[in-house]
């Protein structure tokens, strides 16, 4: 990544592709590439919708689906629709994190689905389990 100032702009240059790597294979093994960036949509701790760009984490060597970092660059212009359109123009994927249907927090990582098919965070799941015990 290169970051530089050009007149009255700061330019972030991010390579579109990143070569996959596998610590169990020779360094020069060609095992393909992945897009460097992904657009992400999530709620902050106050329930406000946030959008931004994250770096894709290569998980191919572990035979898992790729993951992504936290937001590298927040995107504060426009709305969700225009952000998704921007990602389409940039030809990168968009990942919208699931939101807990009970407390409204963003769910990072694995989660359960409630009886109505809605995502539930682990805190709310534990609370629900404790309430069941009382019945
Ligand atoms: Zn919750």
- Helical fraction equals 10-25%
- What about the largest sheet? 4 strands, mixed
| SS content category | alpha+beta
List the bound ligands. zinc ion
Number of domains: 2
Looking at this protein, list some descriptive labels.
binds zinc ion; 135 residues; 2 domains; 10 strands; 35% strand; 18% helix; alpha+beta
Molecular structure report:
Strands 7-6-5-8 form a four-stranded mixed beta sheet, with helices on one face. The mean pLDDT is 91. The protein contains two helices and ten strands; from the N terminus they run E-E-E-E-E-E-E-H-E-E-E-H. The chain is 18% helix and 35% strand. It folds into two domains: 2-97, no CATH class; 98-135, no CATH class. It has helices at 80-90, 122-134, and strands spanning 2-6, 9-13, 17-19, 33-35, 37-43, 49-57, 67-74, 94-96, 112-113, 119-120. Strand 5 and strand 6 form a beta hairpin. The radius of gyration is 19 Å and the shape is flat. The chain is an alpha+beta fold. Zinc ion binds at residues 100, 102-103, 105, 121, 123-124.
């Amino acid at each position: 990544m290169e970051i530089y100032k050009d007149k009255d702009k700061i330019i972030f240059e991010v390579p579109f592709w990143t070569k996959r790597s596998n610590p169990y294979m020779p360094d020069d093994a060609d095992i393909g590439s992945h897009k460097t960036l992904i657009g992400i949509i999530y709620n902050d701790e106050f329930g406000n919708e946030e959008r931004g760009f994250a770096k894709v984490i290569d998980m191919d060597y572990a035979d898992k689906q790729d993951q992504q970092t936290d937001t590298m660059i927040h995107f504060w212009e426009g709305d969700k629709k225009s952000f998704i359109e921007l990602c389409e123009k940039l030809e990168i994927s968009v990942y919208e994190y699931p939101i807990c249907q009970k407390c409204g927090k963003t769910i990072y990582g694995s989660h359960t689905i409630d009886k109505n098919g809605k995502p539930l965070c682990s805190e709310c799941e534990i609370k629900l389990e404790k309430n069941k015990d009382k019945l």
